[in-house]
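Researcher: Let's try something more involved. This one mixes different molecule types, so please make sure each is placed in the same coordinate frame as the others.
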Amino acid sequence: MFNLKQRLYPLYWRLLTRYLNKRQPAASQVSLTQKLIFILPTRYGWWFLLLIVLLYLLGTNYQNNLILLLSYLLLSLFLFSIALSYQNISGLTIQAQKPAESFAGEYVKTQLSLSSQKQHKMLQFNLVQHNELIEQPELKHNVSFNLAVTQRGKYQLPRVKISSQYPFGLWRVWSYIAIEQIYWVYPAPADHVAANSSAADNDATQCIQPSGDSLAAYQAGDSIRHIVWKRLARDPANPVVRQQLIAPKAEPSWVVVPKLTGDALERALRQACQQLLALEKSGTRYGLKLPNLTLAQAVGPLHLQRCLQALALC
Amino acid sequence: MLVAPRLLMLWAGIQLSIVLLLQQAFALWITALFILLMLYKITATWQGKATLSLKLVNLLAAAIALALIVNIRQAGVLHFMLQILLLAASCRLLALKHSADARQLVWVHYFLIASCFVIHQDMFTALLIFTVFTLNLYSHFRLFAPPRLHISWRQTSRSILIVLPLWLAMFTLFPRLPPFWQIPNAKVASTGLSDTLDPGSIEQLVKDDSLAFRVEFNGELPTRTQLYWRAYLYEDFNGRSWQVNPLRQHRSQLNKALPQNASGIGLQYRVIAEASQQHNLFALMLPTTVSNEVYIASAGLIKSNKPVSQRTSYQVTSINAPVTWSGNTETDINLQLGVGNAKTQVFAKQLAEQYPSPPQLVQAIATHFNQQHYFYSLTPPPLGNNSVDSFMFDSRTGFCSHYASAAALILRAAGIPARVVGGYQGGDWHPQQGYLAVRQREAHAWVEYLDNEQWQLFDPTAAVAPERILNSLESALTAEQRQLLFSGWAQFELLQSIRLQLMHLDYYWSVWVLGFNDNSQQTLWRNLRQYFTTILSVLAILVGITLLLFGLFFWQRRPTNLAPEAAVLVQHKLGKLLQAKAPEQTLSAFIQQLALQQPVHQHWLLLLAKTYEQAVFKNEAEALKRLQQLLKRHSKELRALRRGCIKNA
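Model: All components are placed in one shared frame. Result:
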């Protein structure tokens, strides 16, 4: 049973996403209107309905008008609370804020701003297929999510689920909102190489150390040109490459990422990231050279951001 | 989330009031037990003690449940169910820590509160129960609301305004169904007359001021001497007390006392009987038809299918005729003399020799009671086993039952079948409200004797205390005995009148709320259909007026448009195209931009921009006119532009 549910869930989610994408494409600002709001009874709501049915049976069997009155009162409350819970969530406006940024392996904190003409109570926010649940008994000005990120890149925030059970917990009103909220995940800075090559601090030491120490096992994506052929002849099963710890000696204060693929590229990007951070910290002008993009030398947080974004997309 | 102590107190209070409301249904020790549990919870919450551990509460619950199961025979299924529910609720409350658990508690409370209506239906208790319900609803709301929310009265009253009509419409218009299955009845002590008529039982009953039933008459109110409400037939006499014959208990036997030719105009009336936990109900004279809830049993009595455990109303048509004789079995039963009372039998034989025909004999008995020194008293001396003898020849003081049993025995001894009838005589007529209130005070006993194959009515009390029949019990008693009837509070006139008003209110309550059934519903529907057009037109007028008012309101609030006429005109004509306009852009700049984008329309668009500027800035009437003409001339192109704009979007 559980297995079936687990297997069906992705299918369900895929269909739902297709439907939602058609119904509400991502936008930078979304107001919750009737079109976007779903309402269904909660589990407690079903129990409540059972109570109404039981009371109706009791009242009918005893031909007791007062019990019937009570049962109808509960029924009208039950129905009216549809409108109440709808009102509690409708009219809420969610707006995307400036992109969030973080390094891979950390948490990215994305923030959305909330605004409304009305009062909204007991709202719950969570990102679909994420566990973090944020409750706001009274509406605040914004809501922020902490997302664990592993892969560098430029991402769009998943759909946000906004739900509420106010006022009687009988109905769950919810909405899946796609919002054009972007977050950047930069390559994680390679800490261990920082000591090895303090690239930014003095340009002179920034060169390859052609010692045999920097040999490493071949990994998919390593350039064939770096393979140590002599060793390969000896031991064809374990190819070894001569590692280039740092980019080949370039112009001072240029961070260069050579044309690589796979893990090698990732490694290089991590290093480049580390270098960029160090350079920015030292306050020197620096530029970034990627295989297909060159960012001119400059300094400042905006420049750093632009460089890091280029790394994330590389 | 932890539950606030205030909510805990509220729930304990709700449970306490439920226990008190259901106290009638519970044995004393059970009530006491629940009250103890609640009081413990209240004091513990007050002092801020920790909640009991779940293990302890489970143990406690198991022990109490065991005791309740042992008691199930005595309590009956319904009460057992209520006890178990209440036990579940109170134990849940004792161990309650988190608000998630409290939902079940609130649910059970709703059910228990509704079950209180099985026992209580009078208006004030109903109001009380609705108050408890409101408190429970409040606690329900609190469970799902933000912790420090102030309830806005405006929103609450708005919600009430919406829910109220919805609720009442559902109640009045939803179809009524008959009971689905037989249900266990509440075991509550019965009130009113019983199967046995002891000397002295009616004297006890008349001290009770509570209501027995109410009657509405379709036609005119019968005279007071006709208001003999028959409820019980006492046919078995054992020398001291009278009892209902076992054959009368069965529905089939001794049946159909209906006359072959039911002549005379029927008297139609509706009886609203209070809960008595008995089968026997009340009717005048000879009932011919009754509504569904009840049936006509033998000898013209009316009974309900199950004990009357709540206020019940039924419709009766009676004809002014004596009850007919059903056969020899009936005659035999009603000639039994019982043991003892020899002196009375001798007296009866003498009387019978003097007056051979039954009407004469009855007249003689009445004269005897009237002429000799007999007294009508609420406090007759106690009688021995030969109750009739000692009443007739020693004490000579008695209440209606004494006179009735003496008269019946004399008639039987004289060879005329006779029986004692128990019921009510008279009632208070409330002309404004249009109903007759019959209280337990009106309990009465009289005699029926067989003459000409018909059971004739004879009330010996009328001979000794005619005021009792013509006026009321109070007028037939001495001032001293009247004191016994009105004890304590009842002596204050103001309180009496308040009580009377409350009774009237309670009457409307029972007619409109409790008595609302499928009949009334059908009538309502019929009326609705009949006055459909009227209702519709009234609704239409109301809606129209509301719209008008709203329109007026908004028209007055409408921001006075400061834009010049030309701008309004052009904006209107451009319509959807304006969506592309940046807010900071002027209208004429936008038109010029449009002209650049649309080379085909460039010429006239530029002209439009120019004319528009002239119309706005020169404020010329002529330019405005030219603008109108221009727009009119190019309306087709404008439409094409608008359509193109939609397509692009």
